[in-house]
């Protein structure tokens, strides 16, 4: 009986310590972290932010430093490193345009993305890549037309557009394949 109480007390103290660690870490969030004091692996992952690290608020610095250990964050950083300078610039511009949208429009777009199936997301990414070289007005007109088509016809039209663009002539098909071709959509 006494042993059970001790184990229960020990478990509760351990649980309390686990919850107290993030609070303890956040107590120092008011102090900025100099770039040179970051561990080498953190500097490597946060390299795109090196130029403006000192302009970040201390809380932002601490939050980013905590994210460095996250596997998803590492994968994103690795993807960023593999991008060409042109692709990085395009992404920065796209993010800038997104930030300029009204909050309700951003929220609606996020919800729309979250409600899409994996195949719909792949199709949207494919469409964006395929149409990136078309002038904006023409691209928006094409996208409106494509949205009104049934999915298979939309995919076929996108495929034609991709193969018609000058940079893709002579290249093999870059259309993403569904992992399960028998899957009904």
Tell me the series of helices and strands, N- to C-terminal: HHHHHHHHH
Quote the distance from N terminus to C terminus: 59 Å
Distinct helical segment count: 9
How much beta, percentage-wise? under 5%
Shape: extended
**What is the mean pLDDT?**
77
Q: How would a textbook summarize the main sheet?
A: none
Annotation, overall tally of beta strands: 0
Could you name the ranges where pLDDT drops below 50 across 5 or more consecutive residues? 168-185
Report the radius of gyration as a whole number of Å.
24 Å
Specify the helix fraction band. Answer: 55-70%
Instruction: Please state the structural category.
Output: mainly alpha
What does this structure look like?
This protein is mainly α. The model is unreliable at 168-185 (pLDDT under 50). Helix content is 66%, strand content 0%.
Give the structure's gist in a few sentences:
The chain has 185 residues and is mostly helical. It has helices spanning 2-27, 40-45, 58-67, 71-82, 85-100, 103-114, 118-131, 136-147, 151-164. It starts with a helix and ends in a 21-residue tail after the last helix.
Chain-wise SSE layout:
Blueprint: H1 2-27, H2 40-45, H3 58-67, H4 71-82, H5 85-100, H6 103-114, H7 118-131, H8 136-147, H9 151-164
Helix pairs in contact: 7-9
Describe this protein with a few key phrases.
185 residues; mainly alpha; 9 helices; 66% helix; disordered C terminus; signal; DUF3106 domain-containing protein
